[in-house]
């Protein structure tokens, strides 16, 4: 399954050891369950900008260097997406547009987000919009 994780999902993955977001990130890093993460350069930059905020680092017990190592690992296992076409503005939050662009250009099966309402327009691109727990359930059914 080809998925794009939105930034809040990535933040949740570092802040909680036991949540579905962490399960997804770990599965992608370990190349398990047939999960392929898709990332674009702007999306990786957004991940870093948000994940290295002081409040997230403190809650996760990580340093900015730890997050950089993690994102290097994500970049190493993820499928890079070249943004041949930008879909702006499509979503209510401009930061969400970069998630949608990575998903559409990368031919993702879905976007994983806690904010399903704002990603509702993604479905017109044939894109599933999944909460982290839903994505885990779909991946577990496939394996």
Please tell me about this protein's structure.
The chain is of the alpha/beta class. It has helices at residues 7-15, 20-29, 41-51, 54-60, 64-77, 94-105, 132-142; strands spanning 2-5, 36-39, 79-80, 110-112, 128-130. Strands 3-2-1-4-5 form a 5-stranded parallel β-sheet, with helices on both faces. The chain is globular. 35% of the residues are buried.
Intertermini distance: 11 Å
What is the number of E strands?
5
Uncertain segments are none
Overall shape: it is: globular
Mean pLDDT: 91
> Which series of helices and strands comes N to C?
EHHEHHHEHEEH
User: What share of residues are in beta strands?
Assistant: 5-15%
| Count of helical stretches | 7
Main β-sheet, spatial strand arrangement: 3-2-1-4-5
User: What is the C-alpha radius of gyration, as a whole number of Å?
Assistant: 14 Å
Structural class: alpha/beta
Helix proportion: 40-55%
The description of the largest β-sheet is: 5 strands, parallel
Summarize the helices and strands and which ones pair or pack.
Layout: E1 2-5, H1 7-15, H2 20-29, E2 36-39, H3 41-51, H4 54-60, H5 64-77, E3 79-80, H6 94-105, E4 110-112, E5 128-130, H7 132-142
Parallel strand pairs: 1-2, 1-4, 2-3, 4-5
Short characterization:
The protein is α/β, with parallel strands linked by helices and 143 residues long.
Protein traits:
single chain, about 140 residues, alpha/beta, 5-stranded parallel β-sheet, 7 helices, 5 strands
């Amino acid at each position: 399954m080809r998925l794009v994780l939105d930034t809040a999902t990535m933040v949740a993955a570092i802040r909680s050891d036991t949540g579905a977001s962490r399960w997804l990130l770990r599965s992608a890093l370990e190349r398990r369950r047939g999960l392929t993460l898709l990332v674009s350069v702007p999306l990786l930059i957004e991940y870093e900008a948000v994940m290295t905020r002081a409040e997230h680092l403190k809650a996760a017990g990580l340093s900015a260097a730890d997050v950089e190592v993690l994102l290097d690992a994500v970049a190493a296992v993820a499928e890079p997406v070249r943004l041949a076409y930008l879909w702006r503005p499509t979503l209510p939050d401009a930061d969400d547009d970069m998630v949608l662009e990575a998903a559409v250009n990368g031919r993702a099966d879905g976007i994983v987000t806690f904010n399903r309402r704002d990603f509702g327009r993604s479905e017109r691109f044939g894109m599933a919009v999944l909460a982290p727990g839903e994505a885990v359930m779909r991946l577990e059914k496939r394996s």
